[in-house]
Amino acid sequence: MTVAPPVNAPIVTGLYVPGDRPERFDKAVATGAQLVILDLEDAVADAHKASAREAVASWLRARAPGCTVVQVRINAGEPLDLAALAAVDAEFELRVPKVESLSDLDVVARAVPGHPLTALFETALGVEGALALAAHSAVTRLALGESDLASDLGTRAPAAMDYARMRVLFAARAAGLPAPMLSAYPGIRDLDGLRADTERGRDLGWVGRTAIHPSQLSVIADVFRPDAAQLAWAESVLAATGSGGVSTLANGDMVDGAMVGRARSILALAAALPR
Ligand SMILES: CC(C)(COP(=O)(O)OP(=O)(O)OC[C@H]1O[C@@H](n2cnc3c(N)ncnc32)[C@H](O)[C@@H]1OP(=O)(O)O)[C@@H](O)C(=O)NCCC(=O)NCCSC(=O)C[C@H](O)C(=O)O
Ligand SMILES: [Mg+2]
């Protein structure tokens, strides 16, 4: 049985599905991924764009409300995508690729009003503008497209990706948005590589990751699930700081209100990722 996540629960696992594979849409939801992204953009060949648009709109109309967050990734500046989605009266979010300017977001927010936007940064210009773009009133999440970014930069060097991850993380937090989810890891069979790269992103402060294959989901959940020591620390911080002021944990560490936010985030992650 799927249990609805608590309000403001972190979203840790996401799964992309090509928009022209409607037979996989319900399957994607059934994986238990907390976020399912129906892609009209790079996963769909030009010849299939129109049928993908129709398949996505018709699935959204027929879908019974559930606890999975559903996003549609549109093609940047494609009026046909916007028109098709504006005609759908259902709950979904929009994932806007290659965002570089406020007008990229305005166009979408005006054409399909009332749907939260995830701004996907995939170029140096987008990453450098992340702080201002995160302040757009329709934007509720930020993300990075690291494959496109690597093409724009001409490198996928870890230092370049770390820089982009840090800028986008700071932009999200400065705008009061949740820590972003890591970009899709293209090596479907390389689960060790996925784990290592996800751990690196987690250690930089990112929370969650979008997958492109169901087999990646359990690795992603594992990486973000707090371990027993983190849980014990979080619980002892909350217990020790209940009445404010400074306290000392059993191990001698000082704790105060400054640690409460992190303790709560650890407990929220544990609640979102049951064993
Ligand atoms: C990559 C794939 C094309 C692989 O497909 P396939 O070879 O058919 O996979 P399997 O045979 O291993 O499938 C096994 C079963 O799993 C189901 N399956 C596979 N993938 C998905 C999925 N994404 N969602 C739901 N279900 C899925 C199959 O149906 C099989 O089920 P069964 O028959 O019952 O056993 C494919 O995985 C795929 O298309 N993935 C998504 C690709 C995608 O959307 N890419 C775009 C997003 S990432 C991106 O754009 C990068 C970003 O923008 C950037 O710049 O970084
Ligand atoms: Mg991309």
UniProtKB/TrEMBL annotation:
The lineage of its organism: Bacteria, Bacillati, Actinomycetota, Actinomycetes, Micrococcales. It is an enzyme of class 4 (lyase). SUPFAM superfamilies: Phosphoenolpyruvate/pyruvate domain. Its cofactor is Mg(2+). InterPro entries: Aldolase/citrate-lyase_domain (IPR005000), Citrate_lyase_beta/mcl1/mcl2 (IPR011206), Pyrv/PenolPyrv_kinase-like_dom (IPR015813), Pyrv_kinase-like_dom_sf (IPR040442). GO terms for molecular function: citryl-CoA lyase activity. Keywords: Lyase, Magnesium, Metal-binding. This is Citrate lyase subunit beta/citryl-CoA lyase. Residues 13-214 form the HpcH/HpaI aldolase/citrate lyase domain. Its EC number is 4.1.3.34. The keyword Magnesium applies. It holds the Pfam family HpcH_HpaI.
